[in-house]
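Posted in: Protein Modeling Q&A

I'm a second-year student putting together a small comparison for a lab meeting, and my supervisor asked me to include a predicted structure for Phage shock protein PspC N-terminal domain-containing protein. I've never done this before, so apologies if this is the wrong subforum. The sequence is pasted below exactly as I got it from our records. If anyone can share the structure token output, I'd also love a short note on what stands out.
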Amino acid sequence: MEYRNSYRVKKVLTKDVVHKKLSGVCGGIAKYYNVPRLLVRVAAVCAFFMLPVVTGVAYIVAAVLIPNR
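Accepted answer (user: helix_wrangler)
Welcome! Here is the predicted structure, written out as tokens:
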């Protein structure tokens, strides 16, 4: 018998309301992909400086659509 595939945990993207700065989107993305929160936040700020309109709209849409934990 193999038990290796019987316990799969379904990962769900949610906002991180505990470690949030604005709405928890970056914290939730960091937790989902298992990367440091600071890395995601720095990437978001860099993207905002390079493409402010696209990043701003994407962040607002993500804040509205991604559910809270």
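A couple of things worth pointing out for your meeting: Residues 25-65 form one domain. The chain has a mean pLDDT of 87.
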